[in-house]
Known about the structure:
By secondary structure, this protein is of the alpha+beta class. It has six domains: 7-78, Helix Hairpins (Orthogonal Bundle), CATH 1.10.287.610; 90-331, DNA ligase/mRNA capping enzyme (D-amino Acid Aminotransferase, Chain A, domain 1, 2-Layer Sandwich); 336-422, CATH 2.40.50.140; 457-537, 5' to 3' exonuclease, C-terminal subdomain (DNA polymerase, domain 1, Orthogonal Bundle); 542-643, 5' to 3' exonuclease, C-terminal subdomain (DNA polymerase, domain 1, Orthogonal Bundle), CATH 1.10.150.20; 659-726, Rossmann fold, CATH 3.40.50.10190. Helices cover 35% and strands 19% of the residues. The chain has 26 helices and 24 strands. It has a five-stranded mixed β-sheet. Helix 25 (704-712) links the parallel strand 23 and strand 24 (715-717). Helix 1 packs antiparallel against helix 2, helix 17 (542-548) crosses helix 18 (556-566) and helix 19 (569-580) packs across helix 22. It is globular, with a radius of gyration of 29 Å. Residues 1-11 and 730-735 have low confidence and may be disordered.
Amino acid sequence: MVENGKAAAGQQDIAGLDEAEARDRLRLLASQIAAANLAYFQNDAPIMSDADFDALKRENAAIEARFPHLKRQDSPSEQIGAQLGEGFSKITHSERMLSLANAFDAADVADFVAGIRRYLGLASDAPLAFTAEPKIDGLSLSLRYENGQLISAATRGDGETGENVTANARTIADIPQQLSDAPTILEVRGEVYMSHEDFAALNARQAALGAKLFANPRNAAAGSLRQLDAAITRARPLRFYAYAWGALSAPLAATQSDGIARLGEMGFSINPLTRICRDLDAMLAHYAQIEAQRATLGYDIDGVVYKLDDLGLQARLGLRATTPRWAIAHKFPAELAWTRLEAIDIQVGRTGALSPVARLTPVTVGGVVVSNATLHNEDYIAGRDARGGEIRGGKDIRIGDWVQVYRAGDVIPKIADVDLSKRPDDARPFVFPTHCPECGSEALREEGDAVRRCTGGLICPAQAVEKLKHFVSRAAFDIEGLGAKQVETFYTDGWIKEPADIFDIKAKYGSGLQQLKSREGWGEKSAANLFDAIDERRRIGLGRVIFALGIRHVGEVAANDLARHFGSWAQFIDCLDRASHEPAAHAPDARARKPLLSQSPAWAEITGIDGIGEAVALALTTTLSQGAERASVDRLVAHLDIQAPVARASADSPVAGKTVVFTGTLEKMTRAEAKARAEALGAKVAGSVSVKTDLLIAGPGAGSKASKAAELGVETIDEDGWLALINGLSGGGDG
């Protein structure tokens, strides 16, 4: 067993990980998290602290963010809670118990609020209230009441199904057995916890009995609630704060705050530090107040939770896969430590970006040994932000400096400050390289770009390998048996140098002197399976092909938007070829490009696709017009049977296959909601009006788009007409 506080000692920072190390780390993290879940949720014998466990999950998420194509099918980031033990029966939640997205600084909270305003179409000065409450470090519990009687209690489990701990929950004094003036069906959600005083007393009793001591109050609370013998739970000093609800037969209130107050009137304990905050400043001020009281509260908290107060707006915002859009957890700051900067290395990524990494004298930060830290870009090293303003008081970072390190989100190490009093006399400003350290090609920094990028393309070993790894990633070709490790090996051995070579492996190495089945780690069956898997991927969707090319700015969403618009590779590449020769493609900037659009119909078509801007158009036309790159893509396409995107709605949808444009102010839904609904019904949503536009939905303030639609004879309706057209039809976007 691992002692408390020791589990994190084996954690790594991720700034210096290469692809192979990242894959191995994700495999280890999945194993460690699974083992921790087993120990905690099934064996009631935790092997690490809650902080260590959370750090592992955040590290896993951070590695996945840096290497999205390495995400495992059993990724901990796709799970809520953990698998259930066998000692308890199961209860399926009427409504899922979700986790919360995290914020780690004021900027993250500001982004959260701004994102809500954007989604809801609210002006920056429109009233918008939030509740702010301490984030209790305990165990989530759902209580179901029917006709005022406590019927069942369940842990969160995996979010869908929890453990039946009803008998144990009945022993907790803070949980009412009977309610008055409650809806016929009421599910109350909250946190089971143990106070510091009660925790100390419990461990004192455990020590007197020669029994095992609990690592911390959270583990003590969880272990106590999950006892098969309710008498043991009864003897444990557990408490409960209510903070939310699930299934309801009738609404509790119109706001989050009034709903919580209603629960308090029914007899539940609600946290006295919960406040209504009517702007960002008030949210951050209350966060500071709670943080200042953290040590004296008498129970563990690890942040502050903000929730949109208006329940109607909560419903409009809805949910992501594992988190609600209307709530976020603002975590407390990470631990800081000082150490020496020994070197600055430059890594070259898949897109050619030159990324500086700080090599540090190893130091422990928050229980984790850190030896590397991200330095972002050359401006960050120089003490400037993206706009040229000062950061760290304008202090630059030099080799030999003493630097203050923190773990952003308790995962990614970053440098917070530099101690100029300890700067060596011979320390010199860091000169950022202007040529790629991998291939020697010139490294250019585009106007408005924060990073330098190698111009070497496929001749650059760093990019070539990474592009091939991206090509076989999950959202791209996803060839079973051909992962990043195999790609790297085949590239090193000269078997593949570009994507097209993958589809020649069977012809070149299925027989003859060099055969795949004869390689170490391979056999006849595994080789045959790989050949079959490659052949299966010759037939593939257009969106996957576009994404697999690894073109800068063209992510999975943009690739699918392009695929839905063009429908076939032939139409896609024809439009790009024409656009690459048009005046707009060669304009120095957006201002110069605008008057050239009338002479650039193909360019206008690409940038007219909703969600596709000039950056994507430039990346596409520039990449696919270069001789070597284009020849490589053409060789790949010759091997493929590229399929049109699957229609997203049935043929009876009145807008299926049509191109629609929204303009003006929509009063009954936001632009994001309207787009999601239209696409879910099979429509293409464009950003500008053209001869290909079938329908314009014009709200108040419609300007040039409405005029152009009238000029072209495009059917135009208002928002009410749009809602009447699609009324009663299914479709709500991609969720």
